[in-house]
Amino acid sequence: MLAAAGALFLRLRDEDAGVLVQPASYTEGIAGTWQRVNPLFASANDVDQDLAALVFAGLVRAGADGAIEPDLAASLPEISPDGRTYTFRLRKDLKWHDGTAVTARDISFTVSRMADPAFKGDPVLAESWSGVEVETPDSSTVIFRLRQASAPFLARNATLGILPEHLLGGLNAQQLYEAPFNAKPIGSGPYQLESLDAAGAELTAYAAYHLGRPELPRIRIRFYPDSPAAIRAITAGEIDGFLLRESASEAQLTELTRAKGMRVEQLQRAAEIVLYLNNDQAAYFADPRVRRALNLAIDREALVSRVFYGAATPSSSAIAPGTWAHSDDFDQREARLEEARRLLDEAGWKQSATTGILTREGNEFRFTIRTDNDPTRVAAAVDVANQLQPLGIRVNVQSTTFSVLRKDFLQERKYDAAVAGWDQGIDPDPYFGWHSSQLGSAGLNLANFGDVVMDELIAKARTSHDPEVRREQYRQFQEKWDDLAPSVVLAYPRYVYVHTTALKGFTPGVLFTPSQRFLDVHKWRT
Fold it and tell me: What CATH number corresponds to the domain at position 443?
């Protein structure tokens, strides 16, 4: 009877009209094509990430503001007082798409393949699991033992999609990379992959999905060679949705806004555009008053309007707005030129009556902003240069390839200032970018910034498993950032997501990856 009812649901007959009524579905376009639909390899390909987000599930997941929520786990883990041991208990009656029970051994198996020396996925992913011991005392309990306390572990590690041991247990890491499974994956996520080819993918709702049966019976994915082709498909009404991953041009935004029956959403990323200031550049930026002056001089609203055509969130904070750790109290967006002038004057920079340029001890305030050839970052650098000119600061903008920028200037710290992007990821921990231990060419503290108080705040926040303690540490971090201005955060770019106005249940939030848009896909309906 249940099977018959399911068949009727999938193909209903409108007796009055005498026609077949197809069930609700949603078709999304994606620029690119698939390679390996496997969470261990998906980070190398945007399309694989999207499909993996629909097919697989992790122990936990990141909510709309980045706060961690249970997924396959029945609740958030029990964490030992020293912050090194995480104990997860799985939900009851979890099933893979083929009906086999999901057990703790699946989690252990997934982690074990990343420890294999032959693992061909992202080395950063493998390194993040290095030294983590896994225990499975019973079929529903998983225990992770870390070498040291790490609060980001939940967001950066436990969100990883889990693989089925009963299908893949006989494969080593090399074999897993080449396995037919990667084209016909079986997961425990909201949708089952029905078919996959060069044109697209067909997915059907997984009735036993642990967060509730998806309301859309079917999702179709169509692959396009590039974003312009997908945008043409949107305007022609061939697809119901499309996420533009690169910065939108003014023409693209106009075209998408005019598409009939479509709604344009702007979804903020956790990645920021930063004007890095070399704190070791004693002529200009070793003095925190000068750095703060530059931070106060930038009208971020105007920059976002001119450079991003509105598709970015203006912000001066090193913690992404809209996330659980962000404090709006220390996030300035408007320019405060008089205060900037006062600070520059206190630092000894006086405006020349003849040239209008700031001078100190006979030297003019002139410096170079370096960036890569990305048009948006070049435009941001030029906009900053133009905004600093009324203060009497003269800025030259030079661009090159990203590899040259990274190797010759940023890595060697041989620059005055630089416009670059920083992707914070799911967890707000700023350790790698701003802790003094990351100084030097081997680290990512590109601004050569060091402060004992900031170091303590960062260290405490990344080792405490109490969310409220972390929130308070990050509030103080942002307060200190506002005071010391290690560099100048300009904005957080937004992804442009256009979808049919008929789509309901979509949850806008911060996108830590493009596939994060499928956070609550099981609640979507048309």
Answer: 3.10.105.10
Q: Which residue has the tokens 């049966």?
A: 213
Q: CB–CB of 290/442 below 8 Å?
A: no
Helix, strand, coil percentages, rounded to 5, for the chain? 35, 25, 40
245, part of any domain: no
Alpha helices in 420-494 (DSSP H): 431-434, 452-463, 467-484
Containing 19, the helix (H) or strand (E) segment is strand 19-21
Residue 205 tokens read as 């709702």
Angle at 353 between CA 347 and CA 356, to 5 degrees: 70
What does the pLDDT average to over 294-306? Answer: 97
Instruction: Look at residue 129 and tell me if it is in a domain.
Output: no
Number of residues that make up the chain:
526
Contact yes or no for 247/486 (Cβ under 8 A): no
Is 343 part of a structural domain of the chain?
yes
Domain of 415, in residue numbers: 271-493
H or E segment and range at residue 378:
helix 375-388
Q: How many structural domains are present in the chain?
A: 1
Residue 323 in any domain: the answer is: yes
Q: DSSP alpha helices (H): ranges in 143-188?
A: 153-156, 165-168, 173-178
Q: CA end-to-end span of the chain, whole Å? A: 27
Global confidence as pTM:
0.92
| CB < 8 Å & 24+ apart, contacts of 5-11 | 9/217, 10/217
Model confidence band, residue 23 (pLDDT cutoffs 50, 70, 90): low
Q: What is the DSSP string of 241-309?
A: EEEE-SPPPHHHHHHHHHSTTEEEEEEEBSEEEEEEE-TT-TTTTSSHHHHHHHHHH--HHHHHHHHST
- Average pLDDT over the chain, rounded to whole? 94
- Bridge partner list, 25: 218
High-pLDDT (> 90) share of the chain, %: 92
How far is it, in rounded angstroms, from Cα 405 to Cα 411?
8
The answer to whether residues 283 and 363 touch, using CB atoms and an 8 Å cutoff, is yes
